[in-house]
């Protein structure tokens, strides 16, 4: 069988170096470890610094490396799997939920959220803010919108503000019989608030997962979770849980 023109084109030098560097990350470095400076790495592998930078940039795009101001280039933790499977549906805040409540406030949601919740556009709802951390770094931020009608007993509960109030709202949701939940995902860019929460620059790529929680045919809550695109990947299947992917076989999504 003849060789096509495409097959005869050699891999760029930086791509070959990326493969060598990836193997070195798996065998010589641990998560969070700082890599040697560019001059030392270029000398070790016998390449120009421009070639090295291209390889490092590709590994950063694949989530293998993380460049931090004032620190240097470090080995990134494994990507976190964001499951969109068809497993058991559960309310947020359950015993196996890895999200941490940050605070809760009553406020008017964006118009699109109000429409999805079928509340009046000037009607306030409970907005629970939660965060997700992996290996000591923020990887996701969530806003959970809960109409007052979904937790009617909440007003009679003496709960302080902040995370404690958020936990009370989540606990009240557990009392409802969840019919189903629907997920949608899209690629977006981090706004100012998300960028600050996720320790990224504004405009950085993010995955936005919207989850609609349905009770008796109506939307009882709506979650908008923003994930760092460089630390997460989508998983599909029936497991229903969020998986943490370890080991040298992890690939870019």
Automatic annotation (TrEMBL):
InterPro entries for this protein? Bact_HTH_transcr_reg, Chorismate_lyase_/UTRA_dom_sf, Tscrpt_reg_HTH_GntR, UTRA, WH-like_DNA-bd_sf, WH_DNA-bd_sf
Instruction: Give yes or no: UniProt keyword DNA-binding.
Output: yes
Q: Which domain of life is it from?
A: Bacteria
- Every copy of the HTH gntR-type domain together lies at 11-78
Q: Which Pfam families match?
A: GntR, UTRA
Q: Which keywords, in A-to-Z order, does the entry hold?
A: DNA-binding, Transcription, Transcription regulation
Under the heading SUPFAM superfamilies, the entry gives: Chorismate lyase-like, Winged helix' DNA-binding domain
PANTHER family given in the database record: GNTR-FAMILY TRANSCRIPTIONAL REGULATOR, MANNOSYL-D-GLYCERATE TRANSPORT/METABOLISM SYSTEM REPRESSOR MNGR-RELATED
List the protein's name.
Answer: GntR family transcriptional regulator
């Amino acid at each position: 069988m003849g060789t096509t023109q495409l097959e005869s084109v050699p891999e760029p030098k930086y791509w070959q170096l990326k493969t060598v560097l990836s193997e070195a990350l798996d065998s010589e470095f641990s998560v969070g470890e700082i890599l040697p400076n560019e001059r030392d790495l270029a000398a070790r592998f016998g390449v120009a610094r421009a070639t090295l930078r291209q390889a490092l940039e590709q590994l950063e795009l694949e989530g293998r490396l993380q460049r931090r101001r004032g620190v240097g280039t470090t080995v990134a933790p494994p990507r976190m799997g964001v499951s969109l499977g068809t497993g058991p549906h559960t309310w947020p805040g359950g015993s196996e939920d890895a999200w941490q409540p940050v605070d809760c406030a009553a406020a008017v949601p964006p118009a699109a959220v109000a429409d999805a919740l079928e509340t009046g556009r000037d009607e306030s709802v409970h907005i629970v803010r939660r965060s997700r951390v992996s290996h000591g770094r923020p990887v996701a931020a969530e806003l959970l919108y809960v109409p007052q009608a979904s937790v009617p007993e909440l007003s009679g509960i003496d709960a302080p503000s902040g995370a404690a109030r958020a936990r009370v709202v989540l606990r009240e949701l557990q009392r409802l019989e969840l019919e189903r939940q629907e997920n949608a995902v899209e690629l977006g860019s981090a706004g100012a608030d998300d960028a600050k929460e996720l320790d990224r620059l504004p405009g950085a790529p993010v995955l936005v997962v919207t989850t609609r929680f349905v009770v008796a045919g109506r939307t009882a809550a709506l979650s908008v979770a923003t994930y760092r695109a460089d630390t997460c990947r989508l998983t599909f299947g029936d497991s229903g849980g969020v998986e943490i992917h370890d080991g040298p076989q992890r690939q870019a999504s």
